[in-house]
C-alpha cells in the first residue's frame, strides 16, 4: 500500500474548499426549497380537480376502455404534478446530505496534450455552481470510475463517446462529517483500509447504508457491468453482495436515465425484514427504490385463492423428508422438469387438454366439449397460446351476442321499469350526455348493461382463463412424465396424491409452483411481463433452478443479476458457482454471462470471520478484513434453566456496548421458547415473517429471517449436538456466525455440535470458552 498523510497546509486549503462548496450548496438548497413549496400548492390544486372529475364506472365491459381513458388522463396530470414535487424534494434531500459531507474523493488528472492538472471531487451526487462549474462529480459519472479502478499513472475510462485515456496524478480520500474533514489520505489504492475500518467499526444503525465512498475494486466490477445479460455473483458472507446490488441499481438508473426507471427493476428479496432493511440505500443516493417482492408474495399473487407453501414453511415442517422425497423434489425443481413441461404443452393434442365448463347459476354456460371444439377447429400449426387466445375471443364474442339477446328479455325490461331515478341515472352514466337516437336505443343500452352485470361472473371466468383446469392438466402431465429410474412407482403415486390433496385444501406445494406456472402461461399466453428490464435475485442459493427459469420466462426482456453464497444454503444443497453458472447459462439461453467471485468479507471483525470460515470445509478462500475485536465465545450449560440464565446475562452485558443484540435460533418454535423464557428480563422482541421493521435492543428470530441482515452482537442459540448433529447443518451455523459485526457468542445446552467442537479443538486460539 502506498499511503501518505497530507500536510497541515493542504488540510487547511481542502477545508477552505469544503466550506466554500457547502456555502454554495446551502444557497441552492434554500432556492430549491422555495420551488418545493410552489410545486406543493400546484399538486394540491390538480389533485382536488381530479377527485371532482374522475368518476369511475367499470361494471360494463364496453365502458371500461372509455372510462379508463378519461381516468388515465386525469391521473396523468396528478402523477406529473406529484412527480415534479417529488423530484424537487429529492433534490433538497440530496443537498442536505451534501451539506453534511459534500464529497469523499479527489482525483487529479492530466489529459493528453494538456499542461494543467485538473482536480475533480467525487461525491454521492453532482453539484455545479451558477457558472456550470462542477464542484462535485457524481460517483457514477464516467470519469469517477478511475477513482475506484485506477492506480496512479495512465488510466482509461468508458464514456458514451468511447474509451478515453488520462493520466491519474493524485488520488485523495476524505472522511467529512458535519462539514469538517476528519480524515484525509493520498493513496494509489481503491480505498485505504484505515477509512474502511472506520466505516465498518461503526455500530449498526438498524438499516443499511450506502457504501459509495468505499466501494472496492471487485465490487465496482459488479456495479458497473452494463453488458452482461446474466451476471452471477458468488460472494462469501459479508462480502458486499447486497450492497453491490443496490449501488448497481443506482448506477444503472443514472446511466440509463431516459430509458430505465425504478419501476422496471425488480428485486427478489429473501424476506420482508430484509426489504425494509435495505430500503434507505437508494433514497440516500437520490434514487427511487426499485420494486421489491419476496418469492412467497410473488407466488401468492400468481395463485390467487391458493395458499402456497413458502420456503420457510418447508424448512419448518419438512426436516424429516426422506432421501427418496428429496430426490423426487430435486427432479421436480430442476431444469429438465421445466423442459418436459414445455414439451408437453407444445405437443399435446386438443383432446387431452383439460377444458372445463364455465358455470353460471350452477349450470354450464359454456360446455367443455364446445370449448374443445372451438380450439380443435383452429389450425394445428398455431402455438397453443395463440390457439387458446383465439378460443377465448370466440367465447367472449358468443357471450356478447348472448348479452345483446338478453338485453331484450322480459325480465330485463321489467327490471328497467322498476329502477329508481337514481339507479337509472347511475346505470346510464356518462352516456346520457350523448343523445340516443331513440328511446328504444336507450332501453337497449340499459338492458345490455343490466345483462352484462348479470353475466359478469361468466365474463370474469373467461377473462381469468378459468375454462382450462391447469391443476388436472398438471396431474395428467405427472402421470405420463418419465421420472428418473431411481424414483419408485409408489413414490410417484404418492407425489401425485399429495399434490391433489393439497389442491383440494386450497394449498400448493412450493415445488409444484414453477412448473405449474409455466404450464399455465404456455397454455394461456398470460403471465409475462415484458416491461421489466432488470431482475435481481439476492440469496439465489435459496431458489430452485426451476423457479429461476420461470422468472426468465415471465420477465423475458430482463437482464438478470443473481447473487448468493453457496455456503449459506439453508434449504438445500447447492452446486459450486461455476456449475451453477453453466446450468443457468443453458437454462437462460443468454449470450453474455459473467461470473464474479467475492472472497473478502467486510462485515465482521477479524476474529469473527476467522472463526466462521473454519466452520466450512473450503473456508480458506475467505479473506477476513482486518478489524480488531474480541474472540467469539462458546458458552456451554447443562440445563435449559442454566442456559436461560446465561443467555439473560449475556444479553444484558452486550446491551451495555451495543444497540442490537440478535438471538438466532434454528426455527420458529425455538425462537418462541427463548422469547417466553427471557423477554421479561431482557425486553426482547420476537420477530416473525410478518414483521416489517427492525427495532433496537434484543431481537429473537429463526435464522432464515436473519438472511441478508447483520447485527452488532449475535448470540447463536443452542448450537448443541442435538440441534446440529452433522454436516447438513454447516450452512446454518455459518450463516448464524456471519451475521455478527462486532461480537459473537455461541450458546450450547449440553454438548456442543461436532461442527463447533472441531473448530474449538483444532483452532483453540480462535475462541474463548466460558
Ligand atoms: N466497500 C464497502 N465499504 C463499506 N462497507 C462495506 C463495503 N462492502 C461491504 N460493506 C459492509 O459490509 C457489510 C456486509 O455487506 P452486505 O450485506 O452487502 O454483504 P453480503 O455479501 O450481502 O452478505 P451476506 O451474504 O452475508 O448477507 C455491510 O455492513 C456493508 O455495508
Automatic annotation (TrEMBL):
One of its GO terms (biological process) is recombinational repair. The keyword Cytoplasm does not apply. PROSITE patterns: UVRD_HELICASE_ATP_BIND. SUPFAM superfamilies: P-loop containing nucleoside triphosphate hydrolases (SSF52540). GO terms for molecular function: 3'-5' DNA helicase activity; ATP binding; DNA binding; hydrolase activity. Residues 214-605 form the UvrD-like helicase ATP-binding domain. ATP binds at residues 235-242. This is AAA family ATPase. It comes from Pediococcus parvulus.
